[in-house]
Design a protein that fits this description.
By secondary structure, this protein is mainly α. The chain is built from three helices and no strands. Helix 1 crosses helix 2. The two termini are 21 Å apart.
Length: 73
């Protein structure tokens, strides 16, 4: 995620606990969704998958906003 901002992401992950938390949560959701979509998880219903996708997008938007704030300082 955000490969074009790799240096800023690395800096924020080490200096901002909230950024690290949302970045890690996004990556965890990404992994869970990949497993679910590949059929590796049988107990997740389609509504739960949609909820997870929305949460993942929310986390990505928040992380991106933090990256842009850092970049514009």
């Amino acid at each position: 995620m955000f490969h074009e901002h790799r240096e800023i992401v690395t800096e924020l992950k080490t200096s901002n606990a909230h950024f690290k938390k949302i970045f890690d949560a996004h990556n965890d959701l990404h992994d869970q969704l990949e497993k679910a979509e590949e059929g590796g998880v049988d107990h997740i219903n389609p509504m739960e998958i949609e909820k997870m996708k929305k949460e993942k997008l929310k986390l990505k938007d928040e992380a991106y906003a933090m990256i842009m704030d850092y970049k514009n300082k």
